[in-house]
Write a structure and sequence with these properties.
The protein is of the alpha+beta class and 191 residues long. 44% of the residues lie in helices and 18% in strands. It has a 5-stranded mixed β-sheet with strand order 1-2-5-4-3. Strand 3 and strand 4 form a beta hairpin. The radius of gyration is 17 Å and the shape is globular. The chain starts with a helix and ends with a helix.
Length: 191
C-alpha cells in the first residue's frame, strides 16, 4: 500500500470519528498534493480542527472523539502545546498532528474553506496555499514544492482576496516558476 493511500485511510478514519461528534475539521499537508497528483509518496498530514461554540479547545474535542476508538491513541505534548493522534490499525502506525483552526488555516471550516478529495475533507486550494505560505519561511523546500504544485496546477481556483499579496510576492521572488500563475491570478482579479 502506498504511503499516500495509508495517510488517506488514517485521515478517513479520523474524519469519521470527528464528524460523528460534529467537529468541523480539514486535513492539510503534502498528503493533499500527493492525493491530487495520484503520487504514491507523501510524508506529511495534519488535521485542522475548529474549537466548539462553548469554547471547547480543539484538542479536547479531538481527545473526546478518538476516546471511542481502539484504533487511535492520543499523544499530548504540553511543553510544545501540540497534540498528535496515532492511527495504529496500519503498521507502521500513522501519526497526524492536530492544529487549531485560526493558528493554521482559516478560523471557520465550512463549505467555503473545505473540499473533498477521496471522501476526505481537505482545505480548499486557496486555504491550502494561505496556510503553506505562513510556514514556508521556516521550512522552505517542502512547502515551496507544495505551493508550486497548487499554483501551477490549480491557479484558476485561487481566490486572490484570501492570499497575502506581500507574502506571495516574496514567494514568487524566490520561486520564479510560480510567477506566471501568480500574475494570471492578479490579472484575473484586477480585470
Amino acid at each position: 500500500m502506498s504511503e499516500t493511500r495509508r495517510l488517506l485511510e488514517a485521515a478517513h478514519a479520523l474524519s469519521i470519528l470527528l464528524r460523528s461528534r460534529g467537529v468541523p475539521h480539514a486535513f492539510y499537508g503534502s498528503a493533499m498534493t500527493a492525493a491530487l497528483a495520484t503520487h504514491p509518496h507523501s510524508d506529511e498530514m495534519s488535521c485542522i480542527v475548529e474549537g466548539g461554540q462553548t469554547s471547547a479547545h480543539p484538542f479536547r474535542r479531538v481527545r473526546e472523539a478518538v476516546a471511542t476508538s481502539d484504533d487511535f491513541a492520543v499523544v499530548h505534548s504540553p511543553w510544545t502545546n501540540r497534540l498528535h493522534v496515532t492511527y495504529s490499525r496500519l503498521i507502521p502506525a500513522i501519526e497526524i498532528e492536530i492544529l487549531p483552526a485560526g493558528e493554521t488555516g482559516p478560523r471557520r471550516l465550512d463549505a467555503t474553506t473545505i473540499m473533498k478529495i477521496h471522501s476526505v475533507p481537505f482545505l480548499t486550494v486557496t486555504e491550502f496555499i494561505r496556510a503553506k505560505l505562513k510556514v514556508w519561511a521556516i521550512r522552505q523546500d517542502r512547502d515551496a514544492r507544495d505551493i508550486l504544485y497548487m499554483m501551477l496546477r490549480y491557479w484558476q481556483r485561487v481566490d486572490f482576496n484570501r492570499i497575502s499579496e506581500h507574502d506571495m510576492d516574496q514567494f514568487v521572488t524566490r520561486n520564479a516558476d510560480a510567477a506566471p500563475a501568480w500574475f494570471a491570478i492578479k490579472k484575473k482579479y484586477r480585470a
